[in-house]
Structure formats: C-alpha cells, structure tokens
Specification:
About 35% of the residues lie in helices and about 30% in strands. By secondary structure, the protein is of the alpha+beta class. The strands form 6 sheets. Strands 19-20-21-22-24-23 form a 6-stranded mixed sheet, with helices on both faces. Strands 1, 2, 5, 6 and 10 form a 5-stranded antiparallel sheet that branches. Helix 7 packs across helix 8 and helix 10 runs antiparallel to helix 11. The longest helix has about 35 residues. The two termini are about 30 Å apart.
Length: about 450
C-alpha cells in the first residue's frame, strides 16, 4: 500500500526469493563451531578446576589449564580456562568482566583471545578492567536498592522478573498491574538516592546455610534454584540472595536517575536507569536542552507559559487549516458535480486538483455521498509534485457492469509510470510522470465506459 501510494510496484516473488537468501545467510552467520578442549596444565598447577576469586581481588596470579578453538562468522578465536580468575562471568543479568592476561612476554584480552599466548604454561597475571567492573557493580547494587524502594512505594506484591546490568546502565523488570505514575517514580528515585547518600557498607555473607539466610530476611529471586548454602548481600534494609559483583558501599553508586518506565508483558513493567557518571551526563544533557529552549524563546523566565501559548496558537492554526481544507474539499466536490457528464447512461465526474493524496481521497468519497448510484468519479492530484489517481465507482456499477476499480487504476497508472490497486469500488495509484496524469484520468473513464 505504501509503495502504491508513492508510485512504486512490488515484485513479491523476487522479494520472497531475496528474503530466503537472507535467512540462509543469517543461519550460516549464527553457526558456531567449537573445537575440543585441550588440557595445558601440568603437575605444578594447584587445581584443574577454575576457582573464582573476584569477590576479593581484581588481579590474581593464574595459569591456563585448558583452551579450545571457536569459529563463528568466518572468524576464529580461543576460549581460555584459568585455574584462578578474578573475572566475573556473565550471570544473573550482570555482564561479565573484561580485562587482560599478562605474562613476561605479552598482554592479551581474556577470557576470549584472538590468538593463543606464545607460552601456554607461563605464569600469568589476570587483571580486571576496574573502571568497567566498578561501574557494573554500582549498577548492580542500584538494582537491589531499586527493588527495595519499589516494594516500599508500590507494595509487597512487587517481584523481580528479570534484570540486566552493564557498566553503562541498568534494567529492572518487575510484576505490577498498572503503569507506575511519575509521582511514584520520583518517590522511588528519592528513596534510592537517600540510601546512596547514607553510604551503607556492603554486608556480605558467603556460604550461608539456606535456613540461616532465610532468617536474615534474604529475598530469593523468581524461579532460581539454590543449593544448601548461598551468598547473601545486604545493604541496610535491602537483603537478597546474590552471587554478583557489588559496590563496596552504596555511596559509590553516585547519582541514581530513572530514565524510562514501560510495559514489557502483561503484568510486567520495566524500569531503566543510570548511575554515576552516566546519570550526571544525562542531567547535563537535560540542562542543555532546557537552556536551548530558553534561548529559542528569547530567554523567557516563564518558559512553560510561553510554550503553552505557542501550543495554543499552533492548535488554533491547525484548526483553521483543517477548516480551510474542508472548505476546499467541499468546493472541489461541488465543482465536479456541477460539471458531471452523462455517458452511456452513467454520470461521469473527472478533475485534476493541486491537492495532497488524502484530500483527493476525501473528494471522491464526498462525491459518492451525493451520488451513491450510477456514478464514476476520477480525481487526479499533484500535491507534493507527484501524480496520483483516485477512482470511485458506485456499488451498483460494480455489480451490473462488473467493473473493478483496482484493476482499472492499475492499468491507467502505467501512463504516469506507476502502479496501484484497491477494492472494486475504490482504488488509488501513484506514479512519477506528472505530464501523463490527464491521459491517465481519461484512460480510467475509457476502461469504465466501453
């Protein structure tokens, strides 16, 4: 329909063929070939299973214990497994750490590298990118505070349904039956920032028996399966089961700013927010926008009043324009009816107007209201510098003479180098050649009255 209105035709068969080829390319690009794991560690390595030490360290001495080759999208890289790693792997909605693996001879990104280290058995130092780690940890801690604040503001029915935490932003999905109001969002935001200003230290309990964790008031996440012992993370009144990386205290989060609230499914809402430097940059951007608006309205102190007046004037102009357009449509309708000709017992109306396609459509429908039987109306329009055809045939003509406006307009549109279609009683077509519009209008009448 969009193509037709703009004077284009669609080769559906070729489109489907190209779509199938794209699907094949996408399937091939998504294929991953994993090689076999190759063991590297010798007897001098303390463990053959990876130990995570990231809760306490961001740098740690380590060795490669195994690796494998992975091929995807015609690219080859290697996955490394270390005996001790400070790198948090993506889990529980929190993105994984990035950083480098350093030896005496070289430095490489981990745990995925483009080429294997020269000496696989060397002593390495695994170093986490602490800037990204701290930003991600701040956002993760903020989700815990957000969860607590939502329960206080909206009610105990709030339950976490998902989250995503990176160095740049946080996303938190939760159960709720209606849109969260701006006032409620502001209250939640204030509560989180108040806990941030209190600089509440991380209270962490590792390998805590499940029953003891429950007595502490720790909240379990939806659908999660836990072992006999769990890790409990507490920040003041917020207490949850969690295996992720967190800020050492809430003060390290910085400013917490909600940027959106939306629906993602029935009964599920989503809040997206920023912390630290990213939230500060957002505040600066909003401040710049406000200053630009003030400059646009000559630095008016009463910016809201000026904008409201501008909107009211715009609405008034819009209503005046719509009224003028309706008057022009009425004039065009009367013009066609007054100059209607009867050919072979059929009232034939035709005309070309310098109007937009939507106005031309209104004209033919207005004509049908006055002449509901035994009538054919063809309106050409040149608005926007493009030729358009609108064809209206009354229902009795469609049945008695077996006319079809869609087929007729498609044939006539060839004269304006375009195409179109529609229903038997009404159809439209667009093209490129304005010079052929008059001939196209006459062609419609010729095909109708044979």
């Amino acid at each position: 329909m969009i193509c037709r209105e703009n004077g284009y035709t669609v080769d559906e068969e070729q489109f489907n063929a190209e779509m199938q080829q794209q699907k094949e390319r996408a399937r091939n690009a998504a294929q991953v070939e994993n090689g076999d794991w190759i063991d590297v560690c010798g007897d001098d390595v303390a463990t053959t299973e990876q130990q995570f030490v990231g809760y306490d360290y961001t740098e740690y001495e380590c060795h490669i214990i195994r690796y494998r080759q992975v091929t995807q999208k015609k690219s080859t890289y290697y996955e490394l497994v270390l005996d001790y790693t400070p790198f948090y792997g993506e889990m529980g909605g929190q993105v994984g750490d990035t950083g480098v693996l350093v030896s005496e001879d070289e430095t490489q990104s981990v745990h995925i590298v483009k080429q294997l280290p020269k000496n696989l058995t060397a002593d390495f130092m695994a170093c986490v990118d602490t800037d990204k780690r701290n930003a991600s940890a701040a956002n993760h801690t903020a989700t815990h505070l957000l969860d607590y604040a939502l329960k206080q503001v909206l009610g105990d029915h709030i339950e976490q349904k998902g989250s995503y935490v990176s160095a740049n932003a946080l996303r938190f999905d939760f159960s709720h039956f209606e849109k969260v109001s701006d006032e409620q969002l502001r209250e939640v935001e204030r509560m989180v920032n108040e806990m941030i200003r209190e600089d509440i230290p991380l209270d962490e309990h590792r390998n805590t028996p499940m029953e003891e964790a429950k007595k502490m008031g720790a909240i379990a996440l939806f659908g999660e399966k836990y072992g006999d012992t769990v890790r409990v993370v507490r920040f003041g009144p917020s207490c949850e089961f969690c295996g992720g990386i967190h800020a050492k205290s809430t003060g390290r989060i910085g400013l917490f700013k909600i940027v959106s609230e939306s629906s993602v499914a029935a009964g599920i809402r989503r809040i997206e927010a920023l912390t630290g430097k990213n939230s500060e940059e957002t505040v600066y951007m909003m401040e710049d926008t406000l200053n630009n608006l003030k400059n646009l309205f000559n630095n008016s102190k009463d910016l809201m009043g000026v904008i409201q007046k501008f909107i009211e004037e715009h609405e008034s102009m819009k209503k005046d324009f719509e009224k003028l357009q309706a008057q022009n449509t009425e004039r065009a309708k009367n013009f066609l009816i007054e100059r209607a000709k009867e050919i072979d017992g059929v009232k034939v109306l035709k005309g070309i107007f310098p109007v937009m396609p939507n106005v031309a459509k209104d004209i033919v429908f207005k004509v049908r209201e006055v002449l509901p039987e035994n009538m054919i109306c063809v309106v050409g329009s040149t608005g926007g510098g493009k030729p358009m055809l609108n064809v209206m045939i009354t229902e009795d003509m469609v049945k008695e003479r077996e006319l079809n406006a869609g087929k007729i307009v498609r044939e006539a549109a060839k004269l304006i180098q375009g195409g179109g279609g529609g229903q038997p009683h009404y159809a439209s077509a667009g093209g490129k050649d304005l010079d052929g519009l008059s001939a196209a209008v006459d062609k419609v009448i010729e095909l109708c009255i044979q």
